[in-house]
Design a protein that fits this description.
single chain; 413 residues; alpha/beta; two-stranded antiparallel sheet; 14 helices
């Protein structure tokens, strides 16, 4: 059995024969077998390469994708009253005039690129506006052609409008529907409830198989210190749903105080790096129930926040660079009715200029760039999430625990 080594840049995990590892450590690289594979996996780089500078360049290059990407919030209204919701609670929905302005922009982009346009619908609760989204879809596909529009929906799962979904799926592609659960029924119904105060669990569970006929369903399982012990029971409940549909998957997420709209105790929240540790246990449980779940470390190369052409658009047509900052004046880029003003706004220039690999204090960190893959809005200080009290050594330890999940216990040494 050889040595096992992990590369945090390429994410490669390799088993290396002992004699080859000794040659590698002795820097006698010309003696290595299959030298190219060492280069391809990132275990060898040219000595003159500045790897941190390369990270900066790659991150910046990813910003400048030529195609537009929209997350559209058709309404800030919601039929639920979750205590940790971070959205602005303004009672506003998108006007037909704003839909028309958006449709014109989308059509221009489709004709420019000749590719389908991808929209993520968010809220509030976007399914409250399914009829309007259907009309929006009809307008675009009538001119651009069927299936030139691709949708993803982030919904609470309490609404099922078969007629509208039938029409949308007939004229376009629904790529994914995300639904959220907060633990077993007893806990979920306390935190994810209707405005009337009644629980939503039974309705969501009933709707998930119906929604799965239109698109793959991604069930987000929110985890905090209060519901942590109920998660396995919830996974068992979801198993009954997944046995009826192969379109259902799960993933785990931590509750956090994303902005000043969130009215929860920070002591309830699991910070990102301790949540990675918790996720190892949850992934192991999920696999026992037949779900694919991985905590293998990943490196983020950005999101809408730092992209040239990615925007979050609220019901008024105002644009933002992050889901979490919608409704806050300081983060408003401008309105889609004046696109040149958006691209010249100070906030747009500031977010586009963000790069997590500039002015690094620890350029030789063994887990770089993973340790800089936190949400850009958090790293840039745009959200009030407290800086997590986690040391570098703790971060390294947790990341390596995640890597070890790929290695059988008897081979870990």
């Amino acid at each position: 059995m050889g040595e096992k080594r992990y590369n945090s840049n390429t994410l490669a995990l390799a088993e290396i024969e002992s004699d080859q590892y000794n040659i590698y450590c002795g820097r006698e690289y010309h003696k290595l077998k299959d030298l190219q594979s060492w280069i391809d996996t990132g275990f060898l780089v040219k000595e003159e390469l500045d790897e941190v500078k390369a990270l900066q360049v790659i991150y910046d290059a990813k910003k400048y994708t030529p195609n537009l990407a929209f997350t559209i919030i058709p309404t800030l209204l919601c039929n639920c009253a979750c205590d940790y919701c971070f959205q602005d609670k303004s009672q506003i929905a998108m006007s037909s005039e704003t839909y028309n302005v958006l449709a014109e922009i989308v059509l221009k982009e489709i004709f420019r690129t000749r590719y389908p346009f991808n929209i993520t619908w968010y809220g509030g609760e976007p399914f409250l506006c399914l009829k309007e989204i259907k009309e929006f879809t009809d307008k675009i596909t009538h001119i651009a052609g069927s299936h030139m529009l691709k949708h993803s929906f982030i919904t609470n799962g309490t609404i099922f409008d078969k007629k509208s979904l039938d029409s949308i799926s007939a004229q376009s592609t629904i790529e994914m529907i995300q639904v959220t659960l907060d633990g077993v029924k007893q806990y979920h119904d306390i935190v994810r409830k209707y405005r009337s105060g009644s629980g939503t669990y039974d309705t969501i569970i009933a709707n998930i198989p119906l929604l799965s006929k239109y698109a793959p369903i991604s069930i987000r399982i929110n985890v905090d210190y209060n519901n942590l012990t109920t998660i396995e029971e919830l996974i068992n409940d979801i198993c009954f749903l997944s046995s009826a549909s192969s379109n259902i998957s799960i993933y785990f997420a931590n509750i956090r105080k994303y902005n000043d709209n969130v009215d929860i105790d920070n002591n309830r929240c699991i910070d990102r790096f301790h949540f990675m540790d918790t996720s190892i246990q949850l992934a192991s449980i999920a696999k026992q129930y037949g779900f694919r779940a991985t905590v293998y470390p990943r490196c983020s190369l950005g999101c809408v926040y730092s992209s040239q052409n990615g925007f979050v658009i609220d019901p008024r047509g105002d644009c933002y660079k992050c889901w979490d900052t919608v409704g806050f004046d300081r983060s408003n880029l401008g309105n889609i009715r004046n696109i040149p003003a958006i691209f010249s706004s100070p906030e747009y220039i500031r977010t586009l200029g963000y790069n997590p690999y500039i002015d690094l204090e620890c350029k030789v960190c063994s887990v770089l760039p993973i340790c800089r893959s936190e949400c850009p809005a958090i790293l840039a200080g745009d959200t009030p999430i407290d800086k997590e009290n986690v040391t570098c050594e703790e971060i390294k330890s947790i990341i390596m625990k995640c890597v070890l999940t790929r290695i059988p216990p008897h081979e870990q040494g």
